[in-house]
Amino acid sequence: MTHNIRYAAGSDVGRRREQNEDSGYVSARMLAIADGMGGHAAGELASSATIAVLRELDASLPEAGADLETALEAAVLEAGRRLAELVEIDPARRGMGTTVTAMLWDGTKFALAHLGDSRAYLLRDGALYQITKDHTLVQSMVDEGRITEDQAAVHPRRSMVLRVLGSEGRSEPDMSLREAELGDRYMLCSDGLTDVLGPETLHEILTTYAEPDAAVGKLIELANEGGGPDNVTVIVADVVPPDESTSSMYRVGVGS
């Protein structure tokens, strides 16, 4: 049996940044976040160019029968190729890049593509799971047993990203396919949220606020109350019966 996703998204510049280098996109089939980096406004360009490719995929993908993983991975790699083209046009953009975390939905399952330190979470049966792994220096140190998760959360180099979608070289995304269950709640976010709010707070908000738009709004509010050190973008999507509507309308600064 196929289901719908009921979704909401929002983005905010935060309290300390002058521009928003996050980009996002939500639809009945696609959830995507990109957090750009690079000087001379190149971060904003990198994230928006990547999201543009994912929008194109959403518009062109057949309604049924598509190989979700293959299609999504190809779109991410195409975005990387376009970033390289943008640097060829203007060498001042060299070093530009972006995280990308995207989920492509067919009514029963999601393909998930991930590069960088934006994150995807799954809330299922009351438990919250992080379903992406950060491509960061501190995460590699945790994996090697050199520091603990608690130490990683406050490490001064916790924002140092080792793998992104960039203009230099070919970056392969982590790919997976996930079967969805009725009642699942998914959250995608940039690190402007998770650098401020810990897993306990994320769990509390995602279990307390039944509507995706209310959850998105509260999470962004709390990130800003916590200092808002970075841009923050949040997408929340619930797996719902096929007769339920898909959008709950909180879409500040995010394409749809």
TrEMBL record:
Keywords on record: Hydrolase
As one GO molecular function, the record gives: protein serine/threonine phosphatase activity
**Matches recorded under PROSITE patterns:** PPM_2
Q: Where is this region: Disordered?
A: 1-21
Tell me which CDD domains the record gives: PP2Cc
Name the SMART domains for this protein.
PP2C_SIG, PP2Cc
Q: Where is the signal peptide?
A: none
Any idea of its EC number? 3.1.3.16
PPM-type phosphatase domain location, by residue? 6-239
The name this protein goes by in its record: Protein phosphatase
